[in-house]
Design brief:
Blueprint (H helix, E strand, L loop, with lengths): L3 H15 L7 H9 L7 H7 L7 E5 L5 H8 L4 E6 L2 H14 L3 E5 L13 E6 L10 H11 E12 L28 E2 L5 H6 L11 E2 L4 H10 L3 E8 L12 H4 L5 E7 L4
Parallel strand pairs: 1-2, 1-4, 2-3, 4-5
Antiparallel strand pairs: 5-9, 6-7, 8-9
Length: 270
């Protein structure tokens, strides 16, 4: 039986190799950000609102830093990015140095964020595709609470867990015959992204590390957040996609189902 420690180690190696996919985008990202670009989606911007009063935002699972640095263009004064991948953080560092941006990058598993960051954040941001890589939601919510100042907010924008049950190659919504149910919480090996990129950037003759992911229902996410002591201010489901998950499904049919959701919560306090 695979331990959580082994899952985390395998995921780290998978993302270290996948980081190569983004290397060619560094200059383009810097130019985008320098011109005031914001990588957050419309729903994220609308729900987050004006961030001019946010002194410090911590982006958990920040990847190569594009979303974290975009928060600065939304008004945040300083960002801290936390990620398990040293290679991803190296790219983030190069971007922030090129921009002269007030940013700090910390290599850490999301469940082991250094205590030095406790109660430093006005906003903890976790964006698209982060929660499937968390194996313990209660522990994750506990990390969020200890990072936030009194009155600080958590923002999650994530893929809707219902998307896990549909057949990805069908031209209508039908259950994936080889898939799992909505309530299945067992670890599963990723088969699309980052799996393809991990394989592409693994040297010939070496074993391809597996990226392990977990499916969390909205109910499980909400319960973990509430149990940790956060007050939910906003929960919204969206028909919008992060990516073209079902290319053969007609847009009018796709618009009838949720594909993403946003959650905004805050720590009690001033």
């Amino acid at each position: 039986m695979t331990s959580f420690k082994e899952y985390v180690a395998s995921n780290k190696e998978a993302w270290e190799r996948t980081a190569n996919k983004y290397e060619a985008d560094i200059e383009q990202d810097v130019a985008f950000l320098r011109n005031g670009g914001i990588n957050q989606l419309e729903a994220e911007r609308r729900i987050l609102g004006d961030l001019a009063g946010v002194q410090c935002a911590i982006h958990l699972q920040c990847s190569h830093g594009l979303d974290a640095l975009s928060l600065l263009n939304m008004g945040v004064r300083e960002v801290v990015g936390v990620d398990i991948s040293k290679e991803m953080l190296g790219q983030a560092q190069r971007k922030s140095e090129a921009l002269g941006a007030p940013a700090q990058w910390i290599e850490s598993d999301v469940l082991s964020v250094p205590a030095s960051l406790n109660h430093t954040a006005d906003l903890v941001y976790t964006g698209r595709g982060a929660l499937p890589w968390v194996h313990d939601l209660d522990a994750w919510a506990g990390v969020v609470v200890r990072l936030l100042k009194p009155g600080g907010r958590l923002f999650v924008h994530e893929g809707h867990p219902l998307t896990w049950v549909w057949h990805p190659e069908a031209n209508t919504y039908q259950l994936d015959p080889g898939g799992r149910g909505y309530f299945d919480t067992r670890a599963r090996p990723n088969e699309d992204f980052p799996a393809a990129a991990t394989a592409q950037y693994t040297p010939e003759g070496e074993a391809v590390p597996t990226a392990w992911e977990w499916q969390w229902t909205i109910g499980e996410v909400v319960t973990a957040v509430v149990k940790a002591g956060l007050l939910i201010e906003h929960l919204e489901e969206h028909a919008d996609h992060f990516w073209d998950q079902y290319p053969d499904v007609a847009p009018e049919m796709s618009a009838r189902l949720p594909h993403t959701y946003s959650l905004l919560a805050r720590v009690p306090g001033p």
